[in-house]
Write a structure and sequence with these properties.
By secondary structure, this protein is α+β, with helices and mostly antiparallel strands. It contains seven helices and eight strands. The protein has helices spanning 46-57, 146-159, 166-171, 174-184, 189-197, 201-220, 223-227; strands spanning 6-8, 11-13, 22-27, 38-43, 61-65, 84-95, 101-117, 125-130.
Amino acid sequence: MRDGFMQVGNARYLKPGDLPDTIAVFPLTGALLLPAGQLPLNIFEPRYLAMLDAALAGNRLIGMVQPALGEHEDKGGEHNLATVGCIGRITSFAETGDGRYIVSLTGVCRFRLLEEKATSDPFRSFRIVPFIADLSAEAEEEAVDRTALLTAFKAYLDANKLEADWESVERASNLTLVNSLAMMSPFGPAEKQALLEAPDLKTRAETLIAITEIVLARVFGDSDTVLQ
């Protein structure tokens, strides 16, 4: 993100006209993509291979979205979907030689699903409304309580006997730190969706801290002790 616009790979996204109003979606339980975050994917299902081919031939954008929480497949064999997802641009792509694609998506901005489009494609496409404010979210960075976020992160690492590259953590902007930690978090689909749908960066950081404290309290009995 640079000076009020989102730079993703070789593309700049500044305004609504830079984003599609229809996008192919990749439903994946537990997968969280956030603006400026990177999500690696191993694609092997034929319909999603076709989706990647179409995206590479076009604007290189796909929509990551979770199946709706607690929903089952409908009569047509398709999952109902969560109403909020994130647009990702394909910024890395490789063929494996055995029919799979290994790709990396970089988050552009979140979107809200509207109605599904009727197409002859094997994958699903929806009309969407992008969250344009995500393109300039760096203005929200100062509102993040970085100290509280890092305290919760360190407590989680210590409790699970894990290490972190603290030099990289210290260099990261609040936007990168919050969204990267949210994406890396080992929480379930409901928690991941709550982090995705947080209205702003400050709220996402607070939600991440709260979820971490709940997990620590559940496992270790007293999150206050662990967080000290």
